[in-house]
Amino acid sequence: MRTWGKTIASLCLAGLCAPLAAITATVAVAAAPAAKAPPPLPPLRTERVFLTSVESPGGKATALFGFWFKGKGKSDKKPTIIAMHGCGGLYSSVNKEKIEFTPRHIAMARALTDAGYNVLFPDSFTPRGRRSICQETLAQREASSANRRYDVQIAMRWLATQDDVDYARIGMVGWSHGATTMLAALNLAQTDVAVRKVQPKAAVAFYPTCTPYAGSRTPYKPAAPMLILMGENDDWTPPEACESLEKKTEGSDTGITLRLYPDTYHDFDAPGLPIHVRMDIPGVGKRGEGVTSGGNADSRAEAYREMLKFLKDKLE
């Protein structure tokens, strides 16, 4: 197993490095090339924070950390989002020797903080000696969605200690494996979820795997209203199971709303990601055909509008 002690001895978010001992680091976004380039966006600032995660009741403890972005606005206490990364992790794969946020996560941090939300990005993989788990089989995944739901529990506890968090207005956003983790973390059929004194008030899931819950004999009831955003053409996490889950929660006060976007695939909200076929993802798609991944700027823009409206309706 590869350790990341040397790698995370310095923190590089979007190309700017600072010692981990420092409290803050800067996330900068380069302006897109154009005939008349707009002025660069102001940098985002983030703080690396330390959490503790427990794999299972009575199980081993993992030293977990995350990145904390403060929302804009003058109010002392703000609504806050826990953002759960997908199987590819938080960091860019372009330069694997750096800890550099992907454009997807930078874009989300900017959209949410601009809207006045604090955002906490827990890193579920690096503390467990992983950068990505997309190429691992389900049996190999130590950081399974079932285990990662405890990361959500610990994130909730950490937020309860923060003076600038309105603990009555906690929401969640997640992608793929992280969105599936959200389904687990909000599943009231799980005792550890049902007994939680404070529940998130809203959840937005980008292309989760709904199959385990759509086919379960135990009715799935999320602890909070959920908006699922997916592409109609998604062959990595096909939408049919989420359609079934939406129907099963109809009429519930914490029901599921599914939005499907035409001509859209997995990872559609990743800025600038070309559409391509991946043959290295085990256990998904049709044998020998791989799965399709790629951005869709129009679908991404619409999804962000729907996400922000949903969060505003539920958290403000």
UniProtKB/TrEMBL annotation:
Show the Gene3D superfamilies listed in the entry. alpha/beta hydrolase (3.40.50.1820)
Give the superkingdom in one word: Bacteria
Which N-terminal stretch is annotated as signal sequence? 1-30
Q: Which UniProt keywords apply?
A: Hydrolase, Signal
Q: Where is the Dienelactone hydrolase domain?
A: 77-313
Q: Which Pfam families match?
A: DLH
The molecular function GO annotations come to: hydrolase activity
| PANTHER family recorded | DIENELACTONE HYDROLASE DOMAIN-CONTAINING PROTEIN-RELATED (PTHR22946), POLYKETIDE TRANSFERASE AF380 (PTHR22946:SF9)
* Protein known as: Dienelactone hydrolase family protein
* Source organism: Herbaspirillum rhizosphaerae
